[in-house]
Specification:
Number of helices: 5
Distance between the termini: 65 Å
Strand order of the largest sheet: 6-9-10-11-12-13
Radius of gyration: 18 Å
Mean pLDDT: 89
Low-confidence stretches: none
Strand content: 25-35%
Largest sheet: 6 strands, mixed
Length: 218
């Protein structure tokens, strides 16, 4: 399969990443040429455009991680807004399309909106990125001041938290303190492989409900 990149059509082989020089205008033209589609994924930074065509594994892993987040938020009885796909843009500065993003603390600022103004509205509280092709970096989200970025690569989760204008690796999520995310992710992926994703997520949900019921109440 050959790569085709023009203002009318974009097509690159699954699993591939392409880097081309380009302006912000070029990025916008390529973005618009996809119509209602979201593939290939696009990224713009400092005069360079990156294109990535995800493999099925990419979407599967993103959905499982996002489902885990939803189950954890439900177990805490916390409201949220979630988006995928979504294009984050700061004209002439940055364009990025995270795999999944969650508004948790700031869900009320976004609820009901069909469009988000990234120069006015708050950034997502949590962004999830699956790195299968070395396309992603936590630094992509620094211009937006995203408080927390999860980078999932080779079944290992790295949590980055924004502090003093830079990202630092953290052992825990600020949204799920004290919860062993990597352990739960490992278990969910193993169960998904053996029993199916729906069963894996339901088993996580039941285990959280059981743990909550074991907490003594006054």
């Amino acid at each position: 399969m050959y790569a085709v990149i023009s203002t009318d059509r974009i097509s690159i082989p699954p699993g591939s990443v392409m880097r081309i020089p380009g302006t912000w205008k070029d990025f916008c033209q390529l973005r618009d040429s996809r119509g209602d589609g979201s593939i290939p994924r696009l990224k713009y930074h400092d005069g360079e455009i990156l294109l990535m065509s995800p493999l099925p594994r990419h979407g599967r892993e993103a959905n499982i991680i996002a489902d885990i987040v939803k189950v954890l938020l439900d177990s805490q009885e916390r409201n949220y807004e979630a988006f995928t796909p979504i294009t984050m843009e700061l004209p002439e500065v940055s364009g990025i399309e995270p795999d999944y993003c969650f508004y948790i603390d700031n869900w009320q600022a976004i609820v009901g909106k069909d469009r988000i103004d990234w120069q006015v509205d708050p950034a997502p509280d949590l962004v999830i990125e699956i790195d299968v092709t070395s396309y992603t970096s936590e630094l992509d989200f620094l211009p937006y001041d995203v408080p927390e970025v999860w980078l999932f690569k080779n079944y290992c989760l790295t949590i980055y938290q924004l502090a003093d204008g830079k990202y630092e690796v953290s052992n825990n999520s600020r949204y799920f303190p004290g919860f062993s995310l990597q352990e739960s992710i490992d278990l969910c992926f193993q169960n998904a492989k053996e029993k199916g994703t729906g069963v894996a997520i339901n088993e996580l949900r039941r285990s959280l409900m059981f743990d909550r019921d074991q907490i003594p109440h006054d």
